Amino acid sequence: MLSYWEKQSLLQYDMIIVGSGIVGLSTAASIKEKSPEIRVLVLERAVLPTGASTKNAGFACIGSLTEILDDLKCNAEDQVLDLVQLRYEGLNKLRVRLSDEKIRYATNGSYELIQEADKDCLKELDRMNDLLFPILKARAFTPADEKLREFGFSSEHAAHLIRNNFEGELHTGEMMRALIDHCLRLGIEIKTGCEAIIIEENRGQVQVVVQHHYLKEEISFTANKVAVCTNAFTKQFYPEMDLKPGRGQVLITEPIVDLPFKGIFHFDKGFYYFRAVENRVLFGGGRNIDIQGETTTDFRFNEKIREDLVNKLREIILPGISFKVSDWWAGIMAFGETKVPVLEKRSDRIFMGVRMGGMGVAIGSAIGEKLANMMLKV
Ligand SMILES: Cc1cc2nc3c(=O)[nH]c(=O)nc-3n(C[C@H](O)[C@H](O)[C@H](O)COP(=O)(O)OP(=O)(O)OC[C@H]3O[C@@H](n4cnc5c(N)ncnc54)[C@H](O)[C@@H]3O)c2cc1C
Fold first, then answer.
1. Is the CB of 24 under 6 A from ligand 1?
2. Which residue, 13, 99, 129, 247, is the most exposed by fewest CB within 10 angstroms?
3. pLDDT value for 378
4. CA 363 to chain centre
5. Would you tell me which CATH number, out of the four given (3.50.50.60, 3.30.1120.10, 3.40.50.620, 3.40.50.720), belongs to the domain 4-54+175-242+339-376?
6. What is the pTM assigned to this prediction?
């Protein structure tokens, strides 16, 4: 049973954001940066953010050559370019807001490994550079085969290397730490252990109902406006929407003496990605070998994919180098029929920013900014 005082003073906000991943926190930050007088609450269901934002690989990407070529096969050119623009804008916003030093942003090189059988994509380099030039004002892709010997990848899988000059890497943990600190400095309240179970409009306000675990009763926060930033978990509120969860598994090795490469790398159209983290290798992906099994919000591991990742690490990335895996984890992404994220006004008071795919580090801050602008419009 809540007290009179609690009901009077602790449940009312101007705006509530549901979900404390990069999108939820960026939305809250953008609102507060523009209108410091607004009282903003972020509700997170778990002790820590528990989706993708604290689980990802920390690639700051605008898109690899084969990924963009692939996107162009099934999407209009304008749509593909809009996504590159969004990633570019989002990364700039993230870096300016939090600083490169705090998020440990670095540009140690970003490369795509190309097998001999796929080398036709190299013929598209100039066309793709011309296409992206109006956004980036410089050439994005350059051949980098001269690095192959130094990096030591299996030549069967890496016959060619393409460098992307607009990508970088960051420390995911430090990025989220800095974003949380930034929100706290702005005066945003973040409550964890608060799973929203109902979000509904009622008498000119929005009620967000959460379970009070200790009192074992439901309590209702109210706000003028609410943003739903629950990414892969949004179907709990909107079961009809076009959204599929996608689990991603990642490993990190113990430190490796004389690791021969630095930077971030992709192969198989971005389905696999790896990077050096200090002198360890972080390696993830492989959803494509069991798409159905990975269409889940379950954080448990898929043994088939774990085996595949270890084999590829041994055969492609570190041939002849001994390594030990020190950690595994999984995170959940959200996908739809298209790669375009969902940024929507569901009603005059309920807004939504979800379905970030594998791009949320890049686009999260831009989506947060757009969502905040929508919410602040009278
Ligand atoms: C393994 C992996 C690697 C990735 N690598 C990269 C990368 O290198 N670069 C890149 O750009 N992107 C990458 N991504 C994608 C990126 O991490 C996501 O797109 C991004 O984090 C999505 O952010 P979000 O805030 O929308 O969602 P999330 O981070 O999933 O946040 C949603 C939050 O909502 C909370 N929530 C859910 N339901 C409720 C509820 N009912 N009440 C309250 N809270 C709730 C969840 O606990 C969660 O904290 C990767 C993702 C994974 C899984």
1. yes
2. 99
3. 76
4. 8
5. 3.50.50.60
6. 0.98
